[in-house]
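Narrative summary of target 7.
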Amino acid sequence: MRIDPVLRTASAWREASLPAPEHFAAAVSILRTSQIVGATFDRVLRERGITRNAYLLLITLRVREGYADTLSRLSRQLIVHPTTVSMAVDQLERLGYVERVPDATDGRTTIARVTEEGLRATDAASQALADAKYGLGETSASLAAAATEILRQVRHEGDSPD
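Modeled conformation, tokenized:
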């Protein structure tokens, strides 16, 4: 049986009498899981010519009314710098997946809107990620739901901006 490296590290942490071993183990576990999930996203999305930030922007727009939103709201929603949003929109615009349009109510504001081609690409990328189980391997739906709830609680108790 393979020894879990996070549990091995947590055990060594505890044996060394280092502080808050349970919190340390949880944090390292979250970080390692994030690496695994991120690597899956990056691999699947790279095959489609988009970055993780570009995909997150696309799916955020995909669920918006009219498949559009302002760049500033996207920055706040995705918790990234406005320059990151602008770069992702540039990438997606070159691919024909989004278009920039002026806000009809405020000419100073730019709106990003998903094109029909962008909707197809978003749905195809989402299906490919689902086929890869979003990097969660054989995790059951009930365990995924439980993890979501536990992590919501952790975010709520922590310093999360959401």
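The mean pLDDT is 93.
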